[in-house]
């Protein structure tokens, strides 16, 4: 993630900000205001995931990474307070969540993150953040470029098999993304490569990855180029790129991708226009009955600064988030929580 604005931004105001390390920061005057700003992490927030507590949604958690050689994994409540953390991780980047992983004969929820400096992914049980991977699962073994960055989890609907889709700092023009089947082996989560796929422009890197479990698609940001789309199920045997979209209107980097469903097959795909402090909105279902045609329908300005990772849920989370929550990383070692109603109002204004 770039730490310096690369181009002039419209609608900006210079403000003093207690939430950031520098004395002054650039915030969009026209940006939506977050409902909640979390407590600060130790170093540099990078990517959030939302864990829904199915027994009591008001006890749901935001799981977020703190990217540093002495980094961590944090759990925040819906008020933005830190309620748990795992420290001493070696540059954790992105994190995602899956429900119903079978471990020791029981179904558990898991958070899986990339640990860049150990060339591995880490697996933690939720909500207690207990490690269940015996120190990590090695990734990109045998490759010259191994440092993992992006990750998304795909749960195959027909058999609940869980896969990790992992990206890295750099790699080949084809086969940049590796997909791992996650499985329980004597109480420890292990990963086995089942697919290598995905085009890469070579222009910057691929970090943000998102999966649409219901429709069976993988999206990832090829930074400064666009968003690429593939089928998620390795059993389909189809590694063909379905779409390359979001190729225009970005100041520089394409970053966090989030998917908000309005039904089983409709909704929105949100992509961070990082250096413009905004999110570009596309229809999840495509356009005019063409599932892989994704045209820009709105650009939503936000108050986050150079947002890297983001996540969204349509599950109501109390009076502050009656139609769901959108979470975005922001400079200043924090995450911002937005009400989906505020995002939707901007979409409908366009």
Brief summary:
3% of the residues lie in helices and 50% in strands. It has 350 residues and is mainly β. It is globular.
The CATH superfamily is TolB, C-terminal domain
List low-pLDDT spans: 1-24
Instruction: Kindly state the number of beta strands.
Output: 27
Structural domain tally: 1
Strand content: over 45%
The mean pLDDT is 92
Q: Count the DSSP helices.
A: 1
Q: What's the gyration radius in Å?
A: 19 Å
Note the run of SSEs as H and E: EEEEEEEEEEEEEEEEEEEEEEEEEEEH
> Within the CATH hierarchy, at the fold level, what is the topology?
Neuraminidase
Helix content percent band: under 10%
**CATH architecture heading:** 6 Propeller
InterPro entries: 6-blade_b-propeller_TolB-like (IPR011042), B-propeller_Phytase (IPR003431)
Organism: Chitinophaga agri
Pfam families: Phytase (PF02333)
Protein name: Phytase
């Amino acid at each position: 993630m770039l730490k310096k604005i690369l181009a002039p931004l419209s609608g900006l105001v210079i403000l003093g900000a207690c939430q950031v390390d520098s004395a002054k920061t650039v915030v969009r005057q026209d940006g939506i205001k977050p409902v909640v700003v979390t407590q600060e992490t130790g170093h540099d927030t990078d990517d959030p995931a939302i864990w829904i507590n199915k027994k009591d949604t008001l006890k749901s958690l935001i799981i977020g990474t703190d990217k540093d050689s002495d980094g961590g994994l944090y759990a925040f409540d819906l008020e933005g307070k830190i309620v748990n953390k795992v420290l001493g991780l070696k540059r954790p980047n992105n994190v995602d969540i899956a429900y119903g992983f079978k471990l020791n004969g029981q179904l558990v929820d898991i958070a899986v993150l990339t640990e860049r400096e150990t060339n591995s992914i880490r697996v933690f049980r939720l909500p207690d953040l207990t490690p269940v991977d015996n120190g990590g699962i090695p990734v990109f073994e045998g490759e010259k470029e191994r440092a993992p960055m992006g990750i998304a989890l795909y749960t195959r609907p027909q058999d609940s098999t869980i896969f990790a889709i992992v990206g890295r700092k750099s790699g080949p023009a084809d086969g940049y993304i590796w997909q791992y089947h996650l499985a329980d082996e004597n109480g420890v989560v292990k990963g086995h490569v089942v697919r290598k796929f995905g085009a890469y422009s070579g222009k910057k890197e691929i970090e943000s990855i998102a999966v649409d479990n219901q429709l069976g698609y993988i999206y990832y940001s090829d930074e400064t180029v666009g968003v690429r789309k593939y089928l998620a199920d390795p059993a389909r045997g189809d590694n063909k790129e379905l779409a390359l979209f979001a190729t225009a209107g970005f100041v520089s980097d394409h970053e966090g991708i989030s998917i908000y469903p309005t039904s089983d097959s409709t909704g929105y795909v949100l992509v961070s226009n990082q250096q413009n402090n905004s999110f570009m909105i596309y229809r999840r279902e495509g356009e005019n009955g063409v599932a892989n045609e994704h045209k820009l329908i709105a650009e939503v300005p936000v108050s986050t600064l150079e947002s890297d990772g983001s996540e969204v849920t349509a599950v109501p989370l109390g009076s502050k988030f009656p139609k769901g929550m959108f979470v975005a990383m922001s400079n200043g070692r924090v995450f911002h929580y937005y009400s989906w109603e505020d995002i939707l109002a901007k979409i409908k204004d366009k």
